[in-house]
Amino acid sequence: MSIGENVKALREEMAEAAAQSGKAVSDIRLVAATKTQTVRAIREAVAAGVDACGENRVQELQEKEPQGAYTGVPLHFIGHLQKNKLKKVVGVCDLIESVDSLDLAAAIAGRASELQITQDVLIQVNVGADPNKFGIDPDVPDAFLEKIAAMGNIRVRGLMTILPIQEKLGDNRQLFCKMNKLFVDIKAKTYDNVSMDFLSMGMSGDYYDAILEGANMIRVGTAIFGARNHI
Hints:
Layout: H1 3-21, E1 29-33, H2 39-48, E2 52-55, H3 58-64, E3 75-77, E4 95-99, H4 102-115, E5 119-124, H5 141-149, E6 154-160, H6 173-187, E7 194-200, H7 207-212, E8 217-220, H8 222-225
Parallel strand pairs: 1-2, 1-8, 2-3, 3-4, 4-5, 5-6, 6-7
Helix pairs in contact: 1-2
């Protein structure tokens, strides 16, 4: 199947999952995970109607962005961001999905202040307690958000998580449910510079379950582009 056909099939499954969960599919954003993909392939995905592109690596972002790979849709950074590379991301990406420490948040706020902008971010939560994944402990978001609320030039727009690889379909439902509960709990509170607009969770193997459990943003690579070329 072509990239366009894959996106169409994805949209159909997203609509089915949304209907089952009582949501409007128009409220769910499809982010194309573009790691290792060519500029041509990314442009095809954009033309097919993805809502945003998500890049994992700063080097790839720097190579592809000047070539217009992401033109027409918002650009997200969805990989682990090191502080020594944030100058290449802050102000370039519309949304940084992977803020996993107060030090990184403060560094982003500082760079955004230099640029005289407000940088939108998501807080990455390691809800699965996976030692191989980044993210804050799901038991400490209040203290974390209270400190970010005091920072200028940074705006929290929601939460993101990357779950452990599931052995069989449905294994991650409980963790998705836990993330949604955390999202709803925070949404009921009031912090400066914080709004719970986006719950970003679910990838090619489990986006359907993620939507059933409350995701309104999914990050999909293989189901759009096919098997990844590892580089």
